[in-house]
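look at this one:
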Amino acid sequence: MNASDLVSVVITTYNRSDALLAVLDGLSRQSDRHFEVIVADDGSRDEHVRPLFESDLAKALKLVHVWHPDVGFTAACIRNRGVALASGSYVIFLDGDCVPELDFIAQHKALAQPDFFVNGSRVLLSPELTQRVLAGSAQICGRSWFFWLVQRMLGHASKLTHLLRLSDAPRRLEREFSWKGIRSCNMGVWKADFERVDGFDESFIGWGHEDADFVLRLHHSGMMRKNGYCATEVFHLWHMEASRNKASQNAQLVEERVKNGLIRSTLGYSQVRLNDNAQITRL
């Protein structure tokens, strides 16, 4: 992919405007500025939507905000809505609590190639460091190896792989489907390939494995996974884990699809949406 190619960054968020603004701050500092930002909001309350609309960061990035009413965890649906507004030929999915490093866009572009999707990596931050970031007392983008070595020694960062930059190579490829390390919070895919598998499957109810299903169907369609470690890491801000009541049921559905070779969603991106109540705002 050329640096001049437009990339669409689709950010999923829900009732966490402070974390989202930290993510937007990271995007505003990118070395490669040729991208657009679409915030896919899974039903945030007004007190979390309003700070975004009033933010200078949002206006500077000229982001698009798509919101639908809160009916539970429907990440598959709102991601599909976000992609529908994307103008770029390549889409990077990012969660609203994952702060990108300064070369995040540039590294994703460097790894992008036909017939592959990029599965990104993340560095987990502690509650203490997360609070400092959200309070504006700690900047985590563009910091030195010494800063991160101290954070790792103090238990504030889960690993240091983001300090390395490894070139594209066959070792990054996984030709067969694997559950390990699938991260829809940091993933790059060609929009044409997203459309070919009909996006995320909205029949997945509650938290869990809609991203694994998406990756599985990409594999079934003939694509291969490329891992973005030591290139595309993001800093994952700490939060309490969501309810996983439906996780085992969703996992069983993915296991069934491993065997049946399904490619297109049963309830996906291309569906006709009657009485659509999504709200779109361009800042």
